[in-house]
């Protein structure tokens, strides 16, 4: 590897080795590194990438309180009984806290039935340069490399953020509940689009039929490019009912996409976006790492305020620092 511009951070090979062995404490440690500093985390992710691509990633989204955590918990238990290694990432774009406290309780309080073989991590919005979706992608990379057969990502469905988050999954389940009849119509088009499997949870409550009718109508109106007609599964997560049906629906979908080119094309599209996000974060990092940039920004901001310069030219001048910073590139080694 050529020396990086600002010196590539040291990486702890021992930590990598233990993560690859699936050691939970090391996985947690590395996730913290990755979450706290993209720059410090990147060399690890670079190295881990070659060990990824083996896990099945299941995204679960739905409105607050629809029973996502309960379902995730039950599904984890279900898959654990098949002796599969399960990792869970609970993402909350609405919470500023991460890693423990509030969010942690949100999922852990449900997790009586999840055994020690299940790894659980919570994530929130706090300071992710390049966005929560990117940070979640990084954590997925770590868990994938660590050898989890299944990784379940739970996120509250409120907007574009979680669409981005669950889109990285191989299969996505959207959770609905009885009593949200009219809301089904109002559901964000994005959420409808990403649902490979629809789950009506809390099917023990009245109104499940009505939601199902509304949902069916919506599904029949939207033709998907891959030809898949998303099934509707009923569950009572709190009693562990409907799990086998969930798992079967997931399996059916996967056997369709595995046999087609759609999953690959989708993945290519996602990787393209992810690359752009990464590049954006790297550009910002590289700019902001230089104290001179901050001085320049201070000066330009004053000048814009005094109307000496317009914001567009100022931004251009800021960007031009990138090419100044860039010393002649060392030859790129290929291996
Ligand atoms: N009656 C009934 N209650 C359920 C069912 N599944 C979950 N619940 C209850 O619904 C409440 C919310 O469940 P959670 O699993 O925390 O829901 P969530 O979607 O993860 O909630 P947030 O993460 O806060 O958005 C809890 O009190 C559960 O016990 C179900 O199938 N039937
Ligand atoms: Mg939850």
Tally of helical runs: 14
Strand fraction equals 5-15%
Number of strands: 7
- Poorly predicted regions: 1-5, 98-110
Quick one: overall form? globular
Cross-sheet strand order for the largest sheet: 3-2-4-1-5-6-7
Mean pLDDT across all residues, rounded? 83
Level of helix content? 40-55%
Small molecules in complex: guanosine-5'-triphosphate, magnesium ion
Structure description:
- By secondary structure, the chain is α/β, with parallel strands linked by helices.
- It contains 14 helices and 7 strands.
- Strands 3-2-4-1-5-6-7 form a 7-stranded parallel beta sheet, with helices on both faces.
- Strand 6, helix 10 and strand 7 form a beta-alpha-beta unit.
- Helix 6 runs parallel beside helix 7 and helix 13 runs antiparallel to helix 14.
- The chain is globular and about 65 Å long.
- 35% of the residues are buried.
- The N terminus is likely disordered.
């Amino acid at each position: 590897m050529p020396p990086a511009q600002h010196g590539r951070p040291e990486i702890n090979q021992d930590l990598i080795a233990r993560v690859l062995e699936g050691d939970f404490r090391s996985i947690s440690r590395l996730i913290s590194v990755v979450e706290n500093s993209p720059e410090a985390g990147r060399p690890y992710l670079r190295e881990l990438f070659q060990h990824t691509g083996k896990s099945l990633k299941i995204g679960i989204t739905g409105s607050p309180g629809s029973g996502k955590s309960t379902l995730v918990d039950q599904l984890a238990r279900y898959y654990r009984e098949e002796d599969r290694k399960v990792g869970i990432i609970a993402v909350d774009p609405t919470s500023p806290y991460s890693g423990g406290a509030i969010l942690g309780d949100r999922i852990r309080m449900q997790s009586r039935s999840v055994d020690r073989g299940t790894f659980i991590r919570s994530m929130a919005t706090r300071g992710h340069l390049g966005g929560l979706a990117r940070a979640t992608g990084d954590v997925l990379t770590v868990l994938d490399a660590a050898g989890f057969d299944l990784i379940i990502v739970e996120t509250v469905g409120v907007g574009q953020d979680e669409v981005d988050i669950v889109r990285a999954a191989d299969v996505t389940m959207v959770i609905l509940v009885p009593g949200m009849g009219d809301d089904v119509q109002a559901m964000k088009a994005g959420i409808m689009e990403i649902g490979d499997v629809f789950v009506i949870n809390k099917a023990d409550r009245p109104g499940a039929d009505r939601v199902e009718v509304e949902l069916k109508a919506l599904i029949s109106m939207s033709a998907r490019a891959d030809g898949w007609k998303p099934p509707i599964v009923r569950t009572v997560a709190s009693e562990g009912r409907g799990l086998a049906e969930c798992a079967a629906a997931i399996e059916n979908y996967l056997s369709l996409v595995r046999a087609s080119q759609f999953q690959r094309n989708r993945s290519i599209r996602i990787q393209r976006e992810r690359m752009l996000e990464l590049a954006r974060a790297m550009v910002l990092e590289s700019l902001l790492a230089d104290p001179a940039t901050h001085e320049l920004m201070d000066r330009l901001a004053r000048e814009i305020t005094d109307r000496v310069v317009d914001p567009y030219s100022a931004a251009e001048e800021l960007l031009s620092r990138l090419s100044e910073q860039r010393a002649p590139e060392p030859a790129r080694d290929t291996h």
